[in-house]
């Protein structure tokens, strides 16, 4: 008798950002694929989202997946965890900021990322949610989100640090800093601010320490409320942030919450993980332990997924 039992594979499914299709980014992805094969995995590389989604929709395929790999930046990470919640992730950081990968100590090396997957060490992290959208790092409403809105409105391709200069200058000239009302958990009395930043993972653009004591696995959101609103005040906040003195300012309040609601009588933009996310009203909540990520060194009790 010939057995027709399906051959079990250890699939590693790679989602490639379309902007990572040339140069050193492509080289790192090919290094990842080659090393995964050496280590006994079956890599599946996808550029198109629809093809990856269709492949994972087949139960026999999905059951044999060790993890999904986000080969891109933080936007690729967010895209994958929203399309396929609950799937373990590995990160190949080939984007502009790569804040999550940097915070977890994951190198920009295809070979090393393949070895992390083979090692099977994961860290269980909290996620945040705004509406139906999940994200890993941070959210904001106010001036910071207005800059992000302007950057993406002008976007015609890959975003670099230079992409932010003109939008920052324009926002400093014209943004009016409407007042915000923020409700924390079950507190019926709101607090007020002109800019609110919600942090889950203590990494922000240019490595600025908005909330350096934030922990991505403690079940809490760290919140900073910036009370003043003007171009001068935004520059003052930025200078103190760059110098690591933000929490010393009396007009910057520190709060913690599991859920917060942000409202305003005017139109105020919101962003999550560096992407536009509409306008207020907005509700941000923590999702404890909702994401498993492969990491170099287990900082907490971990389990093997490989």
Taking all Cα atoms into account, the compactness measure Rg is 21 Å
Class derived from helix and strand content: alpha+beta
Average of per-residue pLDDT values: 89
String of helices and strands:
EHEHHEHEHHEEEHHEEEEHEEEEE
Shape: elongated
Number of DSSP helical runs: 9
Give the count of structural domains: 2
What does this structure look like?
- The chain is an alpha+beta fold.
- The protein contains 9 helices and 16 strands.
- Strands 6-5-16-13-8-9 form a 6-stranded antiparallel sheet, with helices on one face.
- α1 (23-38) links the parallel β1 (11-16) and β2.
- α1 packs parallel to α6 (110-119) and α7 (143-153) crosses α8 (165-174).
Quick structural overview:
By secondary structure, the chain is an alpha+beta fold.
Keywords summarizing the entry:
306 residues, six-stranded antiparallel beta sheet, Tumour Suppressor Smad4, elongated, alpha+beta, Rossmann fold, 2 domains
Helix and strand topology:
Elements: E1 11-16, H1 23-38, E2 42-46, H2 49-56, H3 59-62, E3 65-72, H4 74-83, E4 89-93, H5 99-104, H6 110-119, E5 122-130, E6 133-135, E7 138-141, H7 143-153, H8 165-174, E8 180-184, E9 191-193, E10 195-199, E11 221-226, H9 231-242, E12 252-257, E13 259-263, E14 269-272, E15 275-279, E16 282-294
Parallel strand pairs: 1-2, 1-3, 3-4
Antiparallel strand pairs: 5-6, 5-16, 7-10, 7-14, 8-9, 8-13, 10-11, 11-12, 13-16, 14-15
Helix pairs in contact: 1-6, 7-8
